[in-house]
Prior knowledge:
By secondary structure, the protein is of the alpha/beta class.
Amino acid sequence: MLVAAAVCPHPPLLFPELAGAAAVELDGLRAACAAALRALREARPEAVVVVGGASHAGTYGPHAAGSLAPWGADVVVGTGEPVLPLSLTAGRWLLGREGMTASAFHAVPFDAPEEECARLGARLATEHDRVALLVMADGSARLTEKSPGYLDPRALPYDAAIVEALGRGEVPVLDPGQAEELWVQGRAALRVLAGAGGPPEGLAGKVLYADAPYGVGYFVASLVS
């Protein structure tokens, strides 16, 4: 059963090695991610599973690593073969900062259909008696004129709906087509979380961070039973 979840973003600039002198600009985001992971640990799960979006599906063991080389830093996160996509590399890095480990990493395609996300979430929730998910999910990259995808007026309410739902311990229904149009990389991972369910009484949600410092929606949430 799913007993807790943390939702965090995975921008390359989350890593101080890539942010350089601008690293302090995301100190608040890193602190919020750390708080969400501490809440995850306090739920006393038997297993922590990391889920994140990627170009292709993939399942990786606890020793898999990720590299920041594609983003210009000679940094490897983990001690195994660097095979993890960015979202899962960020998840592994966040866990390591808190002295935590994952039992597995799952990459879900950005365009994965709802049924596939729901099946994966349901399966992950039943693999152990007490499961916690670390869900790596970015919001829209079309929130402002300086965003990577330029401004789309639909982006702000789209991200706001996600943040509001997470604050209630829920995940909204997210249209795959619209997510692609709004450059939302976290849609599939969030729907895996929805498929995982939780205890009958639900999970209590708390949003710890919600901002768009570089025109991309970043939000951090803690959901616990």
